[in-house]
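Reply to dn_fold:

You asked what the input looked like. This is it:
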Amino acid sequence: MGLSFSPLARKVAYGGFFVLLAPFGLWLWSSRLTCSLPAFHSLWIGIPLLAVGGLLMVLAMWRLWRDGGGLPMNAFPPPRVVTTGVYALLPHPVYAGFVLCCAGAAIVANSTSGLWIATPVAALGCLSLLLGYEGPDLRRRFGSQLPAPWMGLPAGQGFLPLSRRVGTALAVLLPWAVFYLAVKAIGIPADALETRSGWEWAIPVLPVTMPVYASIYLVAPLTFLLCADRAEMRRLAVSGWMATALNTLLYATVPATAAFRPVTGNDWMSQWLAWEQRMALPAAGSLPAFHVTWAVICAAFLARGSLRRWAASCWLWCLGLAVSCLTTGMHSLADVLAGGLTGAVCLRPERLWRRMLDEIEALGNHWKAWRFGPLRVSTTGYGRGWRAWR
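and this is what came back:
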């Protein structure tokens, strides 16, 4: 005879798991982990993160209760869609607030494993839940009624107001800045490979090219402001998120660095370049060169959008910026080529995503086995994995 629980008991058990057991499990797990990455402790950063994250969660839960008629439980979802309050500001504020709280608590507690392991795992868990279950369920139940928050992907077609363009730009560029600063905080791996070849040290450092190198800081946000069409803005935002994910993955898995070449002049451009080098220390996160990745993305969208009449000028600027990465001494040729490649890949994120899904599906569906007497050996995924048992 199976056990049966009332609807209230099921909701209490489900809520208790996510409110109590999941955070406790993350804390217990991170407290038993060892992590060799740099520690980061700051009450001035950790406490505001905790406060903002907690406020986001409280405000979102209140809106779900008052306007949605339910609680933040995807197994027992509210019957009405919520488009007001914090849900008009950013998508999925409960999950965003939870991740901020995880990061803030780790920084306050000076927990290295909590910051570099538990917090990313919590973020990936929330993302997986959104992409794999909650997102499709929301689209199925509410369709066009779903909100298009200020810091999110714009819905529909046609003209996009300036304020919405600013919000989408922040939704893309802020995560990029956070991940890039995290890479800098981790520093240069002990086994990092110097990507600058010997002959590259003979390339003259030309501070006069610094304005071209630094122009990406202006052109990247400007591309979002000039991209007035909603469909084009969605493609640009997804390309930016894909670039963030791909470059961060390469920074974390490919131990590479490119030592900055020294500046010798005393003029204001030389001082500007020297300041840029100081701000960019340590020389981590160099391969691929994010300047080139973003230059390719911006040039492609501007050349086929608002500035299509000046398409040649857009690509000429992109080429000039790639060259300036060498003439300022900030990057190696390998960094520049890798940045161009990742930028080109991210121009068609839907193709990359579809290819990844196809490969993963083929990997999961492939199976073959051989018997050697009592021993059976099986392979999964084109022979890239194996299992054996009696």
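Residues 235 and 349 are 8 Å apart (CA to CA).
Hope that clears it up.
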